[in-house]
Amino acid sequence: MNIVLWADLQCPFCLVGEENLKNAIQELGLEDQINMDIKSYEIHRPEDGEGDHSLIQIFQEKDGFTYDEALAQAAWIDQMAKEEADLDIDFAKARESTDLDAHRLFKFAMDQDPKKAMYLRDLLHQAYFAKQKVLADRNTLLELAKEADLDVNLARQMLESNLYIREIRNDEMEFEALNAQSVPYFIVGHEVVPEHLTKEEMKKVLLRNLKQEKETE
């Protein structure tokens, strides 16, 4: 069964949705029955800075929150990630920036070794959500590439080029052509799931669509 996912690397709902999908697939033992295609959709706005604005400040400027409301929103997101996916994050301290290069690095890794790419994706999430790293920082990206056992010299050459930018923009145009409104956005088999789900909800979606696929074989 094919699954297509559009996600951003700095979106907490994408993180939770991805984690719940991964765990649902593993717990159902479906790893060998799923073809996963992870597409990029960058949600960062230039006015949100390049790691120099706190998420609390961005919440205030973008959503009109007071300082206390922004803190409460970040705390709610932390709690959601813990309760729904057993993830420990500190969203208030995250340092948002463009993550175009991080998306490019993931696509590069997928072309090199998909297993290493998925490990890299976990490292990118940890760096942003738990370690307050800036994903626009190429030194940070190269450190993560090294930790994922990728060829750092090739990764550096890629980042210094324009490789994968067109692929990412194509992902975004495809997303917009679907009239999708937000990420994460899943297509599981033939079913659209336009939001993150809990692990148990995702299990139901997976089993329902696997059953439909078998019935149409």
Question: TL;DR?
Answer:
By secondary structure, the protein is an alpha+beta fold. The chain contains nine helices and four strands, in the order βαβαααααααββα. It has a four-stranded mixed β-sheet, with helices on both faces.
How is this structure best described in words?
By secondary structure, the chain is α+β, with helices and mostly antiparallel strands. It is built from nine helices and four strands. It has helices at 12-28, 55-63, 67-85, 100-112, 114-129, 138-147, 152-159, 165-177, 199-215; strands at residues 2-7, 35-40, 185-188, 191-193. The chain has a four-stranded mixed sheet with strand order 2-1-3-4, sandwiched between helices. β1 (2-7), α1 and β2 (35-40) form a beta-alpha-beta unit. α2 (55-63) packs across α3 (67-85). The radius of gyration is 17 Å and the shape is globular.
**Strand residue content:** 5-15%
- Reading off the top of the CATH hierarchy, the class is best stated as Alpha Beta
The DSSP helix count reads 9
Widest beta sheet: strand line-up: 2-1-3-4
**Low-confidence sequence ranges:** none
Per CATH, the superfamily is: Glutaredoxin
Tell me the total number of β-strands: 4
**What class would the helix/strand composition place it in?**
alpha+beta
What name does CATH use for the topology? Glutaredoxin
Q: How many strands, which pairing sense, and closed or not: the largest β-sheet?
A: 4 strands, mixed
Question: What global shape is seen?
Answer: globular
Rounded mean pLDDT score: 96
Rg on CA atoms, Å: 17 Å
Termini separation comes to 12 Å
Element pattern in H and E: EHEHHHHHHHEEH
Helicity, as a percent range:
55-70%
CATH architecture: 3-Layer(aba) Sandwich
Count of individual domains: 1
